[in-house]
Specification:
Elements lengths: L4 E4 L2 E5 L10 E4 L2 H9 L6 H17 L6 H16 L6 H19 L4 H31 L5 E6 L14 H10 L3 E7 L6 H12 L4 E4 L4 H6 L3 E6 L3 E3 L4 E4 L2 H11 L3 E4 L5 E2 L16 H4 E2 L2 E2 L12 E4 L6 E4 L2 E3 L3 H16 L1
Parallel strand pairs: 4-5, 4-7, 5-6, 7-10, 8-11, 10-15
Antiparallel strand pairs: 1-2, 2-3, 8-9, 9-14, 12-13, 15-16
Helix pairs in contact: 1-2, 2-3, 2-4, 2-5, 3-4, 4-5, 5-6
């Protein structure tokens, strides 16, 4: 399994995804501010990994605090959570991860628990969330595997694999699970400009697993669909609205429309905590705008003329009508997604009680 991030006695260790595939190096974040930098600079990326990273960042901040009273620690926790929440706005998993530790902290603080006990429990929860991420994605993969063709090519956009999580992956986890069950699948990976997650990360990850992979430019998907070469498409998600509208890496919307035109199933694979019940539809999802340099430069070399205007939204929103199914660790959700999402949430509540 690819070690994307790991809690260590020295801090949180992250595989530096900005250096892949040329270098496999790690960055050690010794405090919550360094975790925030790692998330903001996309050293770690992918909604699932960002969620656990946010939780670990809060836990690390609490654990390393020098506060001797709960009043002082309360004020510090506010700053820690706010700092981490401002790193990347679109992936709802980040706010989920922060909230998991914050809610535990609030409970223990209200009980006047000793500070050392609070620190220990917050760290333990962050580690548990790491383990649960891997376990949930394996469940997700098992549910989704049977949706993929027994034989043929599957298209994916961006990277929703082990690198985007604590391990295994969502979209790539479904592909892995299908292959483990004997499906004869090969993968077309979109390059995913401008950050090239498909070029640098998906192709690297799948070839390490000996999964046959072909890298294609973002504007080639329609051509191959027209040739009958692609049997299904599967992507991850950074936020899913209550009606099923899904935010994912820029270019996903175009892929979904092409799939609809060619009669190809288009699947979204994401853990259930990617669904934001407080976001009614895709028009309410905040879209991160990133540095224009990601567009103007390639490997440090400027490839655009001086003075040209640049737009660089990191995500787009695919309306629910283009999505064949949403695959989660709680099962496969289908349209109408408002109903299937509510049913899955209620079922989990019954299990919890």
């Amino acid at each position: 399994m690819i070690p994307t991030l790991e809690w260590t006695p020295e801090g949180v260790s992250f595989l530096d995804q900005t250096k892949l595939p040329q270098q496999e190096t790690y960055v050690l974040a010794r405090n919550y501010k360094e975790v925030a930098t790692v998330i903001r600079d996309m050293i770690v990326r992918g909604a699932m990994a960002i969620g656990v990273s946010g939780a670990m960042g809060v836990a690390l901040g609490i654990d390393r605090s020098a506060a001797t009273t709960l009043q002082d620690l309360n004020a510090e926790v506010e700053i820690i959570c706010d700092t981490l929440a401002k790193t990347r706005p679109t992936a709802v998993n980040l706010f989920w991860g922060i909230a998991q530790i914050r809610e535990l902290y609030n409970k223990l603080a209200a009980e006047n628990a000793p500070i050392e006990e609070i620190k220990a429990q917050c760290v333990a929860l962050a580690k548990t969330l790491y383990d649960e991420d891997i376990a949930n994605l394996r469940k997700l993969g098992a549910f989704g595997a049977e949706l993929l063709p027994q034989e043929g090519t599957v298209l994916t956009h961006c990277n929703a694999g082990a690198l985007a999580a604590c391990g295994y992956g969502s979209a790539l986890g479904v592909i892995r699970a299908a292959i483990e069950r004997g499906h004869k699948i090969d993968v077309f990976a979109d390059e995913t400009r401008p950050f090239n997650q498909g070029t640098r990360l998906t192709a690297w990850e799948l070839t390490k697993d000996n999964i046959p992979t072909t890298l294609i430019c973002d504007n080639m998907a329609g051509y191959f669909m027209g040739q009958g070469r692609i049997k299904a498409a599967i992507v991850g998600a950074d936020r899913i609205a209550a009606n099923g509208d899904t935010a994912n890496k820029i270019g996903t919307y175009s892929v979904a429309i092409l799939c609809k035109e060619h009669g190809i199933p288009f699947y979204v694979a994401a853990p259930f905590n990617t669904i934001d019940p407080n976001t009614a539809s895709g028009k309410d999802i905040p879209i991160e705008q990133r540095n224009p340099r990601e567009v103007t430069h390639v490997n440090g070399l400027q490839v655009t003329p001086d003075g040209v205007n640049i737009e660089n939204p990191a995500f787009d929103v695919t309306p629910a009508k283009y999505i064949s199914a949403i695959i989660t660790e709680r099962g496969i959700l289908r349209a109408p997604f408002v109903d299937s999402i509510k049913s899955a949430a209620k079922m989990q509540e019954l299990v919890a009680t």
